From TrEMBL:
Keywords: Ribonucleoprotein, Ribosomal protein, RNA-binding, rRNA-binding. The gene is rplT. InterPro entries: Ribosomal_bL20, RIBOSOMAL_L20_CS, Ribosomal_protein_bL20_C. It comes from Flavobacterium cerinum. GO terms for cellular component: ribonucleoprotein complex; ribosome. It comes from the Bacteria. The keyword Ribosomal protein applies. PROSITE patterns: RIBOSOMAL_L20. GO terms for molecular function: rRNA binding; structural constituent of ribosome. One of its GO terms (biological process) is translation. Binds directly to 23S ribosomal RNA and is necessary for the in vitro assembly process of the 50S ribosomal subunit. It is not involved in the protein synthesizing functions of that subunit. This is Large ribosomal subunit protein bL20.
Amino acid sequence: MPRSVNSVASRARRKKVMKQAKGFFGRRKNVWTVAKNAVEKAMVYAYRDRKQKKRNFRALWIMRINAGARLHGMSYSQFMGKVKGANIELNRKVLADLAMNHPEVFTAIVNQVK
């Protein structure tokens, strides 16, 4: 009996990967073996960086809060300790936004926790 190969499924699988490689540079966009490796690597980076994005934003918020707190003579850790002690339930994202875009509100929070 002759060998049967499901070329429809194979073609669909390749087509899916090639579609994901659209926009890549050079042979990565149109050569199957190169594109397959490039897409696999891209998926690894995408998975990893979804986690890293959260870390990066938290670090950015901490820097902004620290800069705002130091304008009022406090360090970041002192400020956050006093915020927790005063039972102010604002997260770092909101505090960073206030420090950056609404300094008068941030000043009011600093005065409340001092």
